Amino acid sequence: MSIYAMGRGGPPVAGATTLGLFLCLVQRKFLGGESTYLDQLDFSLLKLGKSVVANVLTYGWSLSSFWENPYTKILRDIIFIAVTCLALLAYFRRVKTTPRIYEIFLPIYLAVVLLWPNPGGARYLIPIVPLYVYYSLEGTEILKRWLQIRRTEAILVPLLVLIFVSYGAEFAHSDFGPFKEGIGKKETIELFSFIKSNTSPKDVFIFRKPRALALFTGRSASVYPESQIGTEVCRYSQTIGATYLIKAPAIDDPNFDEFLIKELPAKQLVFANSDFRVFHIRSDDLERCAAKEASANSPPFALTRTPSSR
Question: Is residue 285 domain-shared with residue 214, that is, in the same domain?
Fold first, then answer.
């Protein structure tokens, strides 16, 4: 559907949008609004420019990773450049001749993604991948006419061969054996077994993966406030009644280890393996730590409760 044909539904859509925005404002005014991520945005031109440049590089690499293989980057880069050039050719041709809703959606979506300071990698590109592939296929038709080639297959088949070779190499190199990380790993099983055997159901844990811990051990757990590593962790731990803290270097915030050494030197190590270390923390230690920086704010993270037994 072209943007011109969409004009017939313009007034109803505009009216519905206006009504929706009005109701949102009423809810925010009288019922309170939801917390948002807008505090992460920095509208200074310098930081915004740096963020956009960094995101362009990050998402460019993420898009090229769709054609990844474990043996050669050259093949990946050739496919990426070829497919991207074909897609750009088709996109700008559409914009120039018969623009549709897709040609409007794409730059708006990419603008939002590039302006957002925290890149999401390949998952933020998933909504545009179908368009990316579609435009590249349409680009082969345009290139065929430009080069005056009789059949599109003369362009498409060599490109598909390269893609299948790259994907075939990735498939052949893939490990289809047991998962080497996660809940099935020996060290993780040891951790869960220790917690179930040596702690009380009333104990509360601070851990980077609280939902997994709660599910497999029957204990209440919460993640520490990542954005406020410091005495805020002590205050939060005290608020939820935490009795144990689990250190997992592979997944923890880089500042978390420093915090443990400086702020909780009296913690008691009760379990350790190559992946995890479990510390027992006393309420008076948390109180002393939290007293260093009194705060009246409510805890930024909710406690992950164990499933009800009823």
Answer: yes
